[in-house]
Amino acid sequence: MVLPAAVRRVARVQRLHTDLSLNYTAIGLVMDLLDRVDELESALRRSQARGYEPADPEVPGSAA
Length: 64
What we know:
Distance between the termini: 49 Å
Structural class: mainly alpha
């Protein structure tokens, strides 16, 4: 049984290969980076839901 997440992941690989002409080594790197971005965005949303605001003055919109 194929899960919807797996189908979306395969579709993303195909788009990267076809649209950007990336080889499969580069696609692996891009997929790892996209996964990391997703993790960081989730962590940021969780932090913001708890009321935490980043205090980095170089981050636009931060609470510095």
